[in-house]
Amino acid sequence: MKNEMINHYVKLVSDVFSKDAEVKEQQLCQRFLRKCPTPLAVKRLSRSEREEMREWAPEMASLFAAIELGRLVAKSHEEIIGHAYSSVELGRSMVAQFQGEEQESICIACTDIHNEIIDWKVLFIGGGCECVTYPDKIFQYALQCSAHGIVMIHNHPTGDIRPSNQDDSFTRRLERGCEIIGIHLLDFMIVGRDSYYSWREDKSIFKK
Protein backbone atom coordinates (compact mmCIF):
# COMPACT_ATOMS: atom_id res chain seq x y z
CA MET A 1 0.00 0.00 0.00
CA LYS A 2 2.83 2.38 0.88
CA ASN A 3 4.64 1.67 -2.40
CA GLU A 4 1.42 2.36 -4.33
CA MET A 5 1.08 5.71 -2.61
CA ILE A 6 4.69 6.67 -3.37
CA ASN A 7 4.31 5.62 -7.00
CA HIS A 8 1.13 7.67 -7.30
CA TYR A 9 2.88 10.65 -5.70
CA VAL A 10 5.82 10.42 -8.11
CA LYS A 11 3.42 10.20 -11.06
CA LEU A 12 1.53 13.30 -9.92
CA VAL A 13 4.75 15.28 -9.51
CA SER A 14 5.90 14.11 -12.94
CA ASP A 15 2.56 15.15 -14.45
CA VAL A 16 2.98 18.66 -13.02
CA PHE A 17 6.24 19.05 -14.92
CA SER A 18 4.84 17.06 -17.89
CA LYS A 19 6.35 13.83 -19.15
CA ASP A 20 7.11 15.43 -22.52
CA ALA A 21 8.85 18.40 -20.95
CA GLU A 22 12.25 19.60 -21.99
CA VAL A 23 15.39 18.44 -20.21
CA LYS A 24 15.31 21.49 -17.94
CA GLU A 25 11.82 20.62 -16.59
CA GLN A 26 12.74 16.97 -16.20
CA GLN A 27 15.80 17.93 -14.18
CA LEU A 28 13.63 20.22 -12.05
CA CYS A 29 11.25 17.35 -11.40
CA GLN A 30 14.10 15.08 -10.35
CA ARG A 31 15.51 17.79 -8.12
CA PHE A 32 12.15 18.19 -6.40
CA LEU A 33 11.77 14.45 -5.85
CA ARG A 34 15.27 14.25 -4.37
CA LYS A 35 14.33 17.00 -1.93
CA CYS A 36 10.87 15.57 -1.26
CA PRO A 37 10.79 11.82 -2.01
CA THR A 38 7.44 11.36 -0.20
CA PRO A 39 4.25 13.40 0.42
CA LEU A 40 5.23 13.59 4.10
CA ALA A 41 8.49 15.28 3.13
CA VAL A 42 6.48 18.00 1.36
CA LYS A 43 4.32 18.44 4.43
CA ARG A 44 7.39 18.85 6.64
CA LEU A 45 8.99 21.58 4.53
CA SER A 46 9.68 24.72 6.51
CA ARG A 47 8.67 28.12 5.22
CA SER A 48 12.27 29.02 4.46
CA GLU A 49 12.74 25.77 2.51
CA ARG A 50 9.63 26.51 0.45
CA GLU A 51 10.86 30.00 -0.34
CA GLU A 52 14.25 28.64 -1.33
CA MET A 53 12.67 26.05 -3.64
CA ARG A 54 10.49 28.70 -5.29
CA GLU A 55 13.71 30.33 -6.46
CA TRP A 56 14.67 27.22 -8.42
CA ALA A 57 12.45 28.14 -11.37
CA PRO A 58 9.15 29.90 -12.18
CA GLU A 59 7.43 26.49 -12.44
CA MET A 60 7.89 25.96 -8.70
CA ALA A 61 5.36 28.68 -7.88
CA SER A 62 2.70 26.75 -9.83
CA LEU A 63 3.63 23.53 -8.07
CA PHE A 64 3.29 25.01 -4.59
CA ALA A 65 0.03 26.70 -5.61
CA ALA A 66 -1.31 23.29 -6.64
CA ILE A 67 -0.17 21.78 -3.32
CA GLU A 68 -1.91 24.56 -1.37
CA LEU A 69 -5.08 24.06 -3.43
CA GLY A 70 -5.01 20.37 -2.54
CA ARG A 71 -4.73 21.22 1.13
CA LEU A 72 -7.73 23.55 0.97
CA VAL A 73 -9.80 20.90 -0.78
CA ALA A 74 -8.80 18.28 1.80
CA LYS A 75 -9.72 20.59 4.69
CA SER A 76 -13.14 21.55 3.29
CA HIS A 77 -16.10 19.82 4.92
CA GLU A 78 -19.85 19.80 4.87
CA GLU A 79 -21.45 22.59 6.91
CA ILE A 80 -22.81 21.26 10.19
CA ILE A 81 -24.94 24.27 11.21
CA GLY A 82 -28.66 23.68 11.08
CA HIS A 83 -28.52 19.93 11.56
CA ALA A 84 -29.19 17.83 14.61
CA TYR A 85 -26.45 15.32 15.39
CA SER A 86 -26.02 12.45 17.78
CA SER A 87 -22.65 12.22 19.50
CA VAL A 88 -21.69 9.51 17.00
CA GLU A 89 -22.50 11.69 13.98
CA LEU A 90 -20.86 14.76 15.45
CA GLY A 91 -17.82 12.74 16.49
CA ARG A 92 -17.34 11.37 12.98
CA SER A 93 -17.82 14.84 11.51
CA MET A 94 -15.18 16.30 13.83
CA VAL A 95 -12.71 13.50 13.05
CA ALA A 96 -12.97 14.55 9.40
CA GLN A 97 -12.79 18.24 10.35
CA PHE A 98 -9.54 17.95 12.30
CA GLN A 99 -7.89 15.27 10.14
CA GLY A 100 -4.33 16.24 9.30
CA GLU A 101 -4.17 19.07 11.85
CA GLU A 102 -0.86 19.25 13.69
CA GLN A 103 -1.95 21.74 16.37
CA GLU A 104 -4.37 21.27 19.22
CA SER A 105 -7.55 23.28 18.81
CA ILE A 106 -10.76 23.79 20.74
CA CYS A 107 -14.05 24.13 18.91
CA ILE A 108 -17.39 25.03 20.47
CA ALA A 109 -20.70 24.01 18.92
CA CYS A 110 -23.74 25.97 20.18
CA THR A 111 -27.17 24.35 20.09
CA ASP A 112 -30.77 25.51 20.41
CA ILE A 113 -33.44 24.03 22.67
CA HIS A 114 -33.88 21.14 20.22
CA ASN A 115 -30.14 20.35 20.36
CA GLU A 116 -29.65 21.43 16.76
CA ILE A 117 -26.37 23.20 16.03
CA ILE A 118 -26.96 26.92 15.44
CA ASP A 119 -23.32 28.05 15.35
CA TRP A 120 -19.82 26.73 15.87
CA LYS A 121 -16.36 28.17 15.97
CA VAL A 122 -12.73 27.30 16.66
CA LEU A 123 -11.97 29.43 19.72
CA PHE A 124 -8.45 28.38 20.58
CA ILE A 125 -5.45 27.05 18.67
CA GLY A 126 -2.42 25.80 20.57
CA GLY A 127 0.83 24.05 19.87
CA GLY A 128 1.52 20.48 18.93
CA CYS A 129 0.60 19.06 22.32
CA GLU A 130 -1.11 21.76 24.37
CA CYS A 131 -3.92 24.27 24.00
CA VAL A 132 -4.57 26.84 26.74
CA THR A 133 -8.30 27.28 27.31
CA TYR A 134 -10.17 30.17 28.92
CA PRO A 135 -13.70 29.27 30.14
CA ASP A 136 -14.85 32.91 30.14
CA LYS A 137 -14.28 33.12 26.37
CA ILE A 138 -16.33 29.95 25.88
CA PHE A 139 -19.24 31.27 27.94
CA GLN A 140 -19.04 34.67 26.27
CA TYR A 141 -19.33 33.07 22.84
CA ALA A 142 -22.19 30.80 23.95
CA LEU A 143 -24.15 33.72 25.39
CA GLN A 144 -23.61 35.79 22.25
CA CYS A 145 -25.15 32.93 20.27
CA SER A 146 -28.06 32.64 22.74
CA ALA A 147 -27.11 28.99 23.09
CA HIS A 148 -29.27 26.58 25.04
CA GLY A 149 -26.44 24.07 25.11
CA ILE A 150 -22.82 23.67 24.05
CA VAL A 151 -20.55 20.88 22.88
CA MET A 152 -16.83 21.35 23.37
CA ILE A 153 -14.61 19.56 20.86
CA HIS A 154 -10.88 19.23 21.46
CA ASN A 155 -8.49 17.47 19.09
CA HIS A 156 -5.41 15.46 20.02
CA PRO A 157 -2.97 15.48 17.05
CA THR A 158 -1.14 12.51 18.60
CA GLY A 159 -4.20 10.36 17.94
CA ASP A 160 -4.61 9.36 21.60
CA ILE A 161 -8.24 10.11 22.54
CA ARG A 162 -7.91 9.27 26.23
CA PRO A 163 -8.75 12.35 28.34
CA SER A 164 -5.82 13.71 30.29
CA ASN A 165 -6.06 14.86 33.91
CA GLN A 166 -6.18 18.41 32.55
CA ASP A 167 -9.09 17.45 30.28
CA ASP A 168 -11.01 15.90 33.20
CA SER A 169 -10.39 18.91 35.42
CA PHE A 170 -11.43 21.39 32.76
CA THR A 171 -14.61 19.43 31.94
CA ARG A 172 -15.67 19.58 35.60
CA ARG A 173 -15.01 23.33 35.68
CA LEU A 174 -16.94 23.80 32.47
CA GLU A 175 -19.86 21.75 33.79
CA ARG A 176 -20.04 23.82 36.99
CA GLY A 177 -19.86 27.05 35.01
CA CYS A 178 -22.64 25.92 32.68
CA GLU A 179 -24.86 25.12 35.67
CA ILE A 180 -24.31 28.61 37.09
CA ILE A 181 -25.19 30.50 33.90
CA GLY A 182 -27.95 28.14 32.81
CA ILE A 183 -26.38 26.55 29.73
CA HIS A 184 -26.34 22.79 29.22
CA LEU A 185 -22.99 21.11 28.67
CA LEU A 186 -24.16 18.50 26.19
CA ASP A 187 -20.81 16.86 25.58
CA PHE A 188 -17.03 17.19 25.73
CA MET A 189 -15.37 15.40 22.84
CA ILE A 190 -11.75 14.53 22.15
CA VAL A 191 -10.97 13.87 18.51
CA GLY A 192 -8.07 11.73 17.32
CA ARG A 193 -6.90 10.74 13.88
CA ASP A 194 -9.67 8.24 13.18
CA SER A 195 -11.74 8.02 16.36
CA TYR A 196 -13.19 10.16 19.13
CA TYR A 197 -13.98 10.16 22.85
CA SER A 198 -17.36 11.36 24.15
CA TRP A 199 -17.68 12.45 27.77
CA ARG A 200 -21.46 12.02 27.56
CA GLU A 201 -21.21 8.47 26.20
CA ASP A 202 -18.63 7.63 28.86
CA LYS A 203 -20.93 8.93 31.61
CA SER A 204 -23.82 6.87 30.26
CA ILE A 205 -21.74 3.71 30.27
CA PHE A 206 -20.52 4.47 33.80
CA LYS A 207 -24.11 4.90 35.06
CA LYS A 208 -25.07 1.48 33.69
Automatic annotation (TrEMBL):
<dbReference type="GO" id="GO:0006508">
    <property type="term" value="P:proteolysis"/>
</dbReference>
<dbReference type="GO" id="GO:0046872">
    <property type="term" value="F:metal ion binding"/>
</dbReference>
<dbReference type="InterPro" id="IPR025657">
    <property type="entry name" value="RadC_JAB"/>
</dbReference>
<keyword id="KW-0482">Metalloprotease</keyword>
<keyword id="KW-0862">Zinc</keyword>
<feature type="domain" description="MPN">
    <location>
        <begin position="84"/>
        <end position="205"/>
    </location>
</feature>
<keyword id="KW-0479">Metal-binding</keyword>
<dbReference type="Pfam" id="PF04002">
    <property type="entry name" value="RadC"/>
</dbReference>
<keyword id="KW-0645">Protease</keyword>
<dbReference type="InterPro" id="IPR001405">
    <property type="entry name" value="UPF0758"/>
</dbReference>
<keyword id="KW-0378">Hydrolase</keyword>
<protein>
    <submittedName>
        <fullName>JAB domain-containing protein</fullName>
    </submittedName>
</protein>
<dbReference type="GO" id="GO:0008237">
    <property type="term" value="F:metallopeptidase activity"/>
</dbReference>
<comment type="similarity">
    <text>Belongs to the UPF0758 family.</text>
</comment>
<dbReference type="InterPro" id="IPR037518">
    <property type="entry name" value="MPN"/>
</dbReference>
